[in-house]
Amino acid sequence: MRSKMKSLFPMFVKLEGRQILVVGAGRVGEPKIHGLLPTGAKIRVVAHEASEAVREWAGNGEIALEERGFVLSDLDNVFLVVVATSSRELNEFVYGEAYARRILCNVVDVPEQCDFYYPAVVQRGDLQIAISTSGQSPSLAQRIRQQLERQFGPGYAQWVAELGETRRKILASNLDPERKKFLLHSLASVEAFETALEAQMQTIGRSVAV
Question: What is the mean pLDDT of the chain?
Fold first, then answer.
């Protein structure tokens, strides 16, 4: 009987400047690499063969690509590793070595060999909503993501950016703490979003008219 897995701890990790290793650069590895590009991480990819997109990223200097087999020294000074090859034996080997070195590892589509999971993500600018089923049903996570994408439309991106700017001004003001708290909560209300969205639509309408 399978033992009950402990609860995951949800968090967002800063990867800027961190050494990330991806083993595999084909159909499965490509989207994982693509998801890492905006983080500012130092991404090194090791694979016998790489997709056209991965080669393009390497040519642009966005990643370092080495088209060869994996060797143990590839794990030196690595913060996190993603394994996306078609070889079960290689995947298990890399996971075991990473675990022994206390390096966070994700073997794609093998929950038992994952220290972390890729969540389904709704992103609207700086707003990120991540959904996880702890690897039990990625399909359900994707369905919930689609529902949330409809609920949190593209207008949230600009609104969140405006909220951040206003928040900084309020915190830097001489208002008393309770007044600051009240303003911050009221600015994040549904009514405030609807007002901001209406203003955005009016601005777009004027631009189109011109």
Answer: 90
Q: Which residues pair with 124 in a beta bridge?
A: 127
Q: Could you report the per-residue pLDDT of 49-105, keeping only the tens digit for each? A: 999 999 999 999 999 999 999 999 999 999 999 999 999 999 999 999 999 999 999
Specify the long-range contacts of residues 198-205, CB closer than 8 Å, at least 24 apart.
200/155, 200/158, 200/159
Among 56, 125, 48, 115, CA closest to 87 = 48
In the chain, the percentage of residues whose pLDDT exceeds 90 is 68
Give the pairing of strands 120-124 and 127-131.
antiparallel
**Which amino acid type is present at position 16?**
E
Closest-CA residue to 142 (of 124, 156, 157, 130): 130
**How far apart (Å, rounded) are the C-alpha atoms in residues 45 and 34?**
12
The set of residues, in sequence order, having a beta carbon less than 8 Å from that of 207 and lying 6+ positions away, is none
Closest by Cα among 39, 48, 120 to 80: 39
- Tell me the three-class secondary structure of the chain, residue by residue: CCCCCCCCCCCCCCCCCCEEEEEEECCCHHHHHHHHHHHCCEEEEEEEEECHHHHHHHHCCCCEEECCCCCHHHHCCCCEEEECCCCHHHHHHHHHHHHHCCCEEEECCCHHHECCCCCEEEEECCEEEEECCCCCCHHHHHHHHHHHHHHCCCHHHHHHHHHHHHHHHHHHCCCCHHHHHHHHHHHCCHHHHHHHHHHHHHHHHHHHHC
